[in-house]
């Protein structure tokens, strides 16, 4: 897998030492979804921009204004309140997120009030 960092590949295939970020990511994802982490080929397929099953495009990443240190991932879902996004949940956990909240539809004013990371 040229271009994919080893740490991400390790997280998906269950490699990495006990106590590692990869191990924590797998545990958090399983706890939240009841499913195993994504296999890399399936995960990469979901990022195909021509894939009609993907109901979102990346918009922005911002820091919450409440001082909590939380980050908000903003997506354009073309107005659809329900969309497939489990590939993003896995990405966020694999990158070290402790929690990942389900998507919420909010107005653009909320986005505009936060600083891009």
What does this 3D model show about the protein?
The chain has 117 residues and is an alpha+beta fold. It has one domain. It is built from five helices and three strands. The chain has helices spanning 6-13, 21-33, 40-45, 86-94, 108-112; strands at 57-63, 71-76, 115-116. The protein has a three-stranded antiparallel sheet, with no helix packed on it. A hairpin with a 7-residue loop joins β1 and β2. α1 packs across α2 (21-33). It is globular. It starts with 5 loop residues before the first helix and ends with a strand. The mean pLDDT is 88.
Could you give the topology of this structure?
Blueprint: H1 6-13, H2 21-33, H3 40-45, E1 57-63, E2 71-76, H4 86-94, H5 108-112, E3 115-116
Antiparallel strand pairs: 1-2, 1-3
Helix pairs in contact: 1-2, 2-4
What characteristics describe this protein?
117 residues, alpha+beta, three-stranded antiparallel β-sheet, 35% helix
Q: Strand-and-helix sequence, N→C?
A: HHHEEHHE
Number of domains: 1
Structural class: alpha+beta
Q: Uncertain runs with pLDDT below 50, 5 residues or more?
A: none
Structure summarized in a few sentences:
The protein is an alpha+beta fold. Helix content is 35%, strand content 13%. The protein has one domain (6-116).
């Amino acid at each position: 897998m040229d271009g994919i960092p080893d740490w991400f590949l390790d997280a998906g295939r269950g490699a990495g030492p006990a106590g590692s970020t990869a191990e924590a990511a797998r545990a958090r994802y399983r706890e939240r979804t009841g499913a195993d982490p994504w296999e890399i080929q399936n995960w990469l397929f979901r990022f195909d921009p021509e894939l009609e099953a993907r109901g979102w495009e990346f918009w922005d990443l911002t820091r919450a204004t409440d001082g909590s240190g939380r980050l908000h991932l903003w997506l354009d879902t073309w107005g659809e309140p329900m969309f497939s996004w489990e590939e993003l949940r896995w990405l966020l956990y694999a990158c070290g997120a402790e929690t990942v909240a389900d998507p919420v539809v909010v107005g653009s004013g909320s986005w505009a009030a936060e600083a891009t990371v």
